[in-house]
Design brief:
6 helices, mainly alpha
Length: 109
């Protein structure tokens, strides 16, 4: 299972659950640091496509979670791609540098 702890070099920009407080400060380097700390050796093109789709959804709709199957569909991947690539929807959301979606939303992730 992936860690929920923020990268040690930037704890002040993460909440206690490891979600970014200011998603606008996210960079691809930040994503790589979070992923590396959580045990990912590399982020593939498919990972990046999902990450950028999640960030676009957040930009367009705010903190409402997307239908993760739809995220897979628009990226021409199998319906469980987020769980297969990131081990959980929560992990994908964190690596994408998005803020804590709230307790109810986290329970669905």
């Amino acid at each position: 299972m992936a860690s929920i702890h923020p990268p040690s070099c930037a704890k002040s920009v993460f909440d206690d659950d490891g979600f970014m407080l200011l998603p606008e400060s996210w960079t691809e380097t930040t994503a790589e640091e979070i992923a590396h700390q959580d045990g990912f050796t590399t982020l593939s093109r498919e990972h990046w496509n999902i990450i950028h789709t999640l960030r676009k959804h957040f930009h367009d709709f705010g903190e409402a979670l997307p239908a993760f199957r739809h995220v897979c569909f628009v990226n021409h991947l199998g319906k469980h791609c987020v769980d297969e690539l990131f081990h959980s929807q929560r992990e994908a959301w964190r690596i994408a540098g998005l803020p804590n979606p709230g307790e109810e939303a986290k329970s669905y992730m």
